[in-house]
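Step 1: inspect the first sequence and its tokens.
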Amino acid sequence: MNEKKKIIIIGGGAAGLIASIAAAESGAAVTVLEHNEKTGRKLCVTGNGRCNLGNLRKYQGCYRGTHPGFAENALAKFSVKDTIEFFEKTGISVVDKNGWLYPRSGQAKCVPDLLEQRARSLKVKIKTREHVTDIHRKNGSWTVNTEGWHYEGDAVVLACGSAASSVEGSDGSGYALAEKLGHHIVPLLPALTGLKCRGKFSGWAGVRTEGEIRLFVEGALCGKETGELQLTDYGVSGIPVFQLSRYALSALHEGKKAELFINFLPGRSKEETEAFIAGRRKLTPYLSDGDILSGLFPNRLCRVLLKQKDLTAAIHEFPLTVTGSTGMAQAQVCAGGVDTGEVNQDTMESLICPGIFFAGEILDIDGACGGYNLQWAWSSGWLAGCCSAKEKI
């Protein structure tokens, strides 16, 4: 009887937990090393505490990175359909909300809890409060050192995420480990985050309103999104802003100018807006200039718009110059990471260090809002777990 292959998985988040299950079901002896006192802490706060597991819709640009096509193979081998079936077998009923997938319970906490239970049922060893300090090859196997112990395995899966979270322990330490093994790290930037803009915005802070927002980089249109915008004291936030943030911050990192233009009435032309305002002045002569937009926009936004020199232009093309983000801790995900040109897309194995595998956010792949980042964790984690457990040659 052949001895089981020993797999060490660094990180007990989404990618690490599913990798541990895939590897164990493939016949390996698996040990998970988690920095926090409990697995899946970041999972517990995703989707505003509801955990957006994935998305039935796939569109061009929903995955980003230096080589975004790298994600396609893993996503095909462990698809959204496979993900739904996997979670149903794990005890999590999945509900479709306009294509966005959630646990029917509406509680994110059930996801790591049930994943951990499934992993433990497969004899996966889960070691918490273990901070990995070094990985090195010794006598034909890998040794993983922590602050208080060392573990030996035939293969190692790095699934330790990034620093893009306010959750304690999300420190991005996996990048240093990958770099020490010889991998290039694509510059790390916040993504899916609010954008700081030049100026003072206390007047509209706290306003939520529908609108269209366009991003221009060096004067060229880079993208546009429509939906609920959150106007803040530092600039703008909300899902439409999140979707554009990666590109705006990448532009700033490259020394380029990034500008936003907000259309607060995307369903009307400028001419229609001018006619509406003129008609309202005629129909309601008793209204002061300060109340002419009342009922059309929230009061605080009305006051800001009415202070602008050209009211119609302000309504349809409110300009903002991007100066930065609210920081990595406030971002939902990180752009950049281990260069995917150095990783086998068919197996998630390092092309530099055979026996080292990668999964999840540590790689230079990030997704749009809507469950795409978790789908990447499930797909890449499953593939890395299965392939790392293949029999020794």
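Step 2: inspect the second sequence and its tokens, then contrast the two.
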Amino acid sequence: MARSSMQKKKILLVMKELLEKTDENHPLSMPDLILMLSENGISAERKSIYHDIEVLREFGIDIENRREKPAGYYVANRDFELPELKILVDAVQCTRFITKKKSDELIRKLENLASKSQAVQLQRQVFIVNRNKVMNENIYYSVDQIHTAISQNAKIRFQYFEWTVAKKTRLRREGMFYEISPWALTWDDENYYMIGYDRMGECIKHYRVDKMINLEVMKRSREGKELFARFDLVSYSQKVFGMFGGEEEEIRLVCKNELAGVMIDRFGREVSLRPVGDESFIITVRVSVSRQFFGWLFALGDRVRIEGPSRVAGQFIDQMKVVSEVYK
């Protein structure tokens, strides 16, 4: 091998060794680096390695020389600090829409952003109660295709499935393809959703990405531009409980003061909380009235009451009666 090629390989090996094996507590000495190069068939002097380290520093790699024991060279700062990588690993493990297989693959890639000794600390297990991973491995490619369609202003077509009692998948609409104009992706209730315009229904709809299969980007341009020009994704997510649709209503809720945080978390800090006496407040919000919304209210117990419209309060009472009949 020519001398110039050997020099290029030498500096790359030094960079790789420092990035993979070193941190503040695990430096490599000059003899360590000389031995590593020798094992790779390269004879090197200290002076040339000093020069390589300076070149790597100029390139942007933060290499420090530790004088006290353990002494040696190490990469001091990386693109991601160890606490940041730990948060990312925890997020990957906790995220429901990422399959177990893909979680393991992503975590291994995140480990490559740290030294080997730090990577051991990333091999952690976060225990989440009742958190099942999805089964559809194609979700990553579907998300990418949806992003592509949005950037290209194109419609998409796909089939949509549901689960049966026998734990088998069954295509909705007897396997007919949905043709939707995608406008946004959102992560809600631990699932990825695509929000788009349905020309057939002339309305905005949302679909769980992990239940979409055989997705294709079409050559037709998207529709619904005028509708989405005034679309507020945050407001939409606040109104739609668990991404289950329903008739949108403006409702008034009377809540105990201890629910102030619950309401702000759900509807945002801009929501108005008007005091009613010393122990309660009233809040007026727009929501999609559905069984999921009623379930959310029921979980809050006697600390919240639907003040109006009376029609919605009646629907809530009727829903509770229907449920109570199941237990008679």
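Step 3: confirm your contrast with the notes below.
The radius of gyration is 28 Å. The mean pLDDT is 84.
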